[in-house]
Amino acid sequence: MDETTPTPNPTSDNAPEAGARVVDLDTRRAERAEDTQPADNSATDVSSGEATGADASGPDDGVLSGTVLRVDPPSAEGGNWLAELAERDRTRRPIVPEWAKSRAEAEATLKWLAAFYARVWAYQATRSPKYVLKLTGRAPRGLARTLSTFTRWVFDWEGEPARVTAVQRNDPETYLKLSRQRDARVRARLIIAVLALVTLLVAGILVATAPTWAQWATLAGLICLLGWLGAPADRPLIDRAVLPTQVQRLDSDIVTRALGALGIAEINKARKGGADGITFPAPITRDGPGWRAEVDLPHGVTVTDVVDRRDRLASGLRRPLGCVWPEPVNEEHPGRLVIWVGDREMSKAKQPAWPLAKTGAADLFKPIPFGHDQRGRLISLLLMFDNVLIGAMPRQGKTFALRVLVLAAALDVLAELRVFELKGTGDLSIAQPVAHRYGSGADDDTIAACVTNLRELHKELERRAKTIASLPKDMCPENKVTPELAAKKSLGLHPLVLAVDECQELFSHDTYGEEAGKLAEAIIKRGPAMGIILILATQRPDAKSLPTGVSANVGIRLCLRVMGQLENDMVLGTSAYKNGIRATTFTAKDKGIGYLLGAADDPQIVRSAYIDAPTAEAIAERARAARQAAGRLTGQAIGQAPEEAPAGPDLLDDLLAVIPAGEAKAWSHVVVDRLAELRPETYGAWAEQENDAKASALSAALKPHGIRTVQVARRVDGRTVNNRGVDRSEVATAVTERDRTRSAG
Ligand SMILES: Nc1ncnc2c1ncn2[C@@H]1O[C@H](COP(=O)(O)OP(=O)(O)OP(=O)(O)O)[C@@H](O)[C@H]1O
To answer: Where is the composition biased (Polar residues) (predicted)?
Structure first.
C-alpha cells in the first residue's frame, strides 16, 4: 500500500486488510515530528496522512491524522489574480463572433436579419388599422386619466390621507405642519398649471391656424398619446409577430427541455435535484442560417450520448431531423456540446453554386472547393500530398462527390487524370475529354486496364523517387514534389490523379483483387510525397472489398449515409463511431451529405457541391480548352490508345524462368519463393504463407492451365522427403500449346 494512503487504525475494530502494511506508530510519529511542514487543519483538501492514532485525539480514538497534502490549486478568491485570470481565460469568448468569421456565414446572418425584420414590419404594418382603432378607443380613458392625475397633483391630493390621519390622531401640530406644506405646494403648482394651460392654449391657437395636414397630424399624435396613456396594463397595444417555425428562436428553455427528453438517466437525475445540471457557457446566438447553442452537459454525460439520440433531440426541439446537428467540441471536455439548429433541413437548404462552376482554374497544391457545411460555409480539400476515400450505401451521392474532385483536378492543367468507373454506367464520362486514361465497365477488361494503371503508377513511384533523389537539395528541400517542380515538364513530377469509382469491383476481383490491393496500398503510402493522388469510392466498405491496408492509410475520408458501425469505421477509421462520428444518422433524404475527416482538425459535416450533368460537361469542356492551350492534353484525351498493355505477368512463362531446364521437377513452395523473388508485386503475397498454403496457391493458379501438381521426392539429410511440386515438362507443353493457339488465332 502506498504510504500516503490512509491506513485503517490497527487498534480499531476493522482489522487491516490482507496485504496492507501495518505502520509502526512510534516510528512514524518520530518521523512526523521531524517534518517541519505544519499541518493545515483548516484546509479543505484531501488529507493524506497515515492513520497513526491522532496526536491530538489520543492514540486510540480512531481519528485519522497526518500531513495535509494540498491537492487543489489556491482558490481564485484568495486574491490570487493570476489564478483568477487563468480562470477567466478558460471561458474567453472569441473577438470576432462565430457568424462573422466567414463571408458566407456573415451574408447568411445578415440576410436572415433582413428577412426577420422585414417580416416583423410587414406583420405590424398590416395590423396598423387595428392599432389605430384601438388607440382611438382608448384615448378618452387616456384623457380622463391625464386630467385626474393632473388635478390630484395640483391640489396635492396624495397628501390628503396623511392630513386626515393627523386629525384622527388629534395631533394639531402635525396637521398644521402638513396644511402649511400643502398650501405652499398648491400655490406653486397652481402657477405651473396656469402656465401649462396658457402654453396649451397658445399651442391650440397655433394649430388652428396651421395647415390642415398639421392639424390632422397633431390630432393623430394626441390620439396616439392619449390612447397609449389609456391602455390597460395587462393588454399591450402591439401583437407579437408570430414567427414562422423555421426562424423560431432557440432559447435555453427549449434546449434544456429537449435534452431532458433524451432519456439519459444522468441528465434526469441532475434536473430532479433542483438545478438543471445543464449549463450554457456561451449565449445562444445566430450562426449562419440557424441557431447555435453551446452546452455543458451534466457531469458524466458525453456528447456521444446525445449524438446517439439525435432523432430524440430533434423531437425534443420540435424540429425536423435534418435541422438538428449536435457536435462535440474537441478542444474542450467530452461533455461540451454544440447544438446547431438550422432554419431549414440541410438537404432542402439552397446550396450555393460550386465556385469553379462558371469560371476559374484549380491548383491541386491549394485547397479546392468541395462543398458546404450545414452553416453554408465553403469546405475545401487539399488534395496534394493526400488520398481520398469516399464510402456510402448506393444512391447516396458518392459518384457526385467524386465528380466534384475529378472536375477540380481537370481544372488544374498540370494534373494528369486517370479515371475508372467500374459500374459501367458512364457516370464519370464527363472526364473522358480530359483524362489521360479513362475506363468504364464492370468487365474483366476494364478492371485489367485499371490494374495496369495501378502498375504504371507503382512503377512511376520508383521513377519519381529516383528523380527527386537526384535533384539538388535547394530545389527539393523536403524531398517531395513542390509546385515549381511539378510545373517543369521535363521532370515529369506533375500531379497524377487516379480516381476509381466502385473500387469494390477491383479489390474483390478473383484474379486482380489481391494485386490491386497491394499496389493501391503502396501508392497510398508512398504516392503523396511524389504527387500521386489516389481517390477511391466504394458502396461496399467491408474488409473484402476494401483492403485494410488501403482503408487504414487514407488521409481524407468522406462517409455519406451507411447502415452500420462497421461500414462507418471502415470509411472514417477505427473508433469514429465510438467517438460520435456516425454517418448512420443520415437519412435517405440526406443525399450528398456526409462526415468528412482529414480536411480540417475536426470532423466536418459536408454536402458535396451539386454539379448536374450539363454543368459538369461545360466544366470539362473548359478544362479541355485550358489544357489544349497549355499543351497538356495527353493520352486517350487526344486519341492516344494506351500502349499495348504489357500483358500481365504470365505464370507459365515465369515458371519456365524460375525452373531451370536442367531441373525436371521442383517443389511448389520452393517455386513460389523463386517466383516472389522474380516479381514481388505479383507473387509476394503467396510467398508470405506457410509451405502448404504456398503449394495450394500455386496449384489453384495452375488448374486453369490444365496443369496438376505432383508428388516430388527429394533426399534431405539422408532422408526421403515428399512434397507437392511442379513438373517442368508439363509447363513447357502448356506454353507450346498456348503459343500455337495464339498464332493460329
Ligand atoms: N450534393 C448533392 N446534393 C443534392 N443531391 C445530390 C447530391 N449528390 C447526389 N445527389 C443526388 O443523389 C443521387 C444519387 O447520387 P449518385 O449517383 O452520386 O449516388 P451513388 O452513391 O454514386 O449511387 P450508386 O451507388 O448507385 O453509384 C443523384 O441522382 C443526385 O440527384
So the answer is: 1-14, 38-50
With a 6 A CB cut-off, is 400 part of the ligand 1 pocket? yes
How far is it, in rounded angstroms, from Cα 268 to Cα 2? 38
Q: Are residues 385 and 427 in the same domain?
A: yes
Q: Does 395 contact ligand 1 (Cβ within 6 A)?
A: yes
Of 548, 459, 455, 447, nearest to 503 (Cα)? 447
Q: Is the ipTM of this complex over 0.95?
A: yes
Residue 486's pLDDT band (boundaries 50, 70, 90)?
very high
Asked which of 181, 210, 229 is the last residue of a domain, the reply is 229
- CA 458 / ligand 1 centre spacing (Å): 31
* pLDDT-derived band at 667, boundaries 50, 70, 90: very high
Residues 656 and 701 in one domain: yes
Phi/psi of residue 55, each to 5°?
A: -60, -45
pLDDT at 692 exceeding the cut of 90: no
Nearest residue to 558 (alpha-carbon basis) of 597, 608, 529: 597
pLDDT at 11 over 60: no
Q: Does the pLDDT value for residue 10 go beyond 50?
A: no
Give the CA count within 13 Å in the CB-facing half-sphere of 133.
4
**How far is ligand 1, taken at its centre, from the CA of residue 649, in Å?**
38
Q: Which of 613, 638, 663 is the last residue of a domain?
A: 638
Note the pLDDT of residue 740: 75
Domain hosting residue 694, numbered range: 651-744
Following CA atoms 631, 637, 641, 645 in sequence, which dihedral angle do they give, to the nearest 10 degrees?
Answer: 90
Question: Given pLDDT bands bounded at 50, 70 and 90, which one contains residue 29?
Answer: low
C-alpha closest to that of 452 among 600, 643, 269, 221 = 643
CATH code at position 392? 3.40.50.300
In a domain, 665, yes or no: yes
Same domain, 670 and 544: no
In a domain, 281, yes or no: no
Is 394 annotated as a binding-site member?
Answer: yes
Same domain for 520 and 668, yes or no, is: no
The rounded distance, in Å, linking the Cα atoms of 689 and 21 is 54
